[in-house]
Design a protein that fits this description.
The protein has about 220 residues and is an all-alpha fold. It is built from seven helices and no strands. It is about 60% helix and about 0% strand.
């Protein structure tokens, strides 16, 4: 009976350590996101935009989201079971989709042989990641919901299982299709973004041009 109580006490202590670890990871990621430009677009800044004021990136947000979840689950499992969980094929697929999405999005923002688009001023994280230059777009909204929904389910099931939860391959296809749609539509967003930064031409005055002032006659 005392052994059972002792083991239960050890389990509660390790779970407390796991909670503390998770809180530290949350604080670390929050500090990095708040104090650095890790989630913001790269490239030249539009006129009047200072460094640290540029728009947030949906692809970068997706990559750090899944990195954060993996860090929490791995540490939680190690502290509660004394075993570091081995990455599964499904986990590698998740990270691969996030890395590929971020990489392709960066290539679209800065195509080879062309000047990269200027980063605009941020209007807030949510507005930035949902706006494609013509307002909130359905493909960006769908990508956001897919990543949040699958991420929360992945975290919940992994903590219950005390290992990385093997997400069904069909859900990986859903996330992959969502990312493909996002990067495919992003390649068409350059024109709309460029229109926002294009200078407004000066208005031309109508009517005949004014004649230059005449030179007064010099008396002989």
């Amino acid at each position: 009976m005392s052994f059972a109580h002792s083991q239960q006490g050890v389990d509660m202590t390790m779970q407390g350590y796991a909670v503390l670890y998770s809180a530290l990871v949350i604080a670390l990621f929050a500090a990095v996101v708040w104090k650095t430009d890790i989630l913001r677009d790269r490239g030249p800044l539009a006129p009047g935009v200072a460094n640290g004021q540029q728009t947030f990136s949906l692809a970068r947000s997706q990559l750090i989201w899944w990195t954060f979840l993996v860090a929490v689950i791995a540490g939680w499992t190690l502290l509660t079971t004394n075993n570091l969980p081995a990455p599964t094929l499904e986990l590698l697929g998740l990270l691969g989709i996030s890395v590929a999405t971020s990489g392709v999005a960066s290539l679209i923002d800065a195509p080879a042989g062309a000047a990269p688009a200027s980063a605009l001023r941020s209007r807030g994280w949510l507005q930035d990641i949902l706006d494609d230059g013509q307002g909130v777009s359905i493909h960006r909204y769908q990508a956001l919901l897919a990543n949040i929904g699958m991420g929360v389910a992945f975290l919940y099931k992994s903590v219950q299982l005390q290992s990385f939860y093997p997400i069904d391959a069909n859900w990986l296809v859903v996330l992959g299709l969502s990312s493909i749609t996002y990067v495919g539509m992003k390649s068409r967003e350059g024109g709309a973004m460029a229109a926002q930064t294009a200078p407004i031409p000066a208005q031309q005055t109508s009517g005949p041009a004014s004649a230059p002032p005449s030179t007064p006659a010099v008396p002989a």
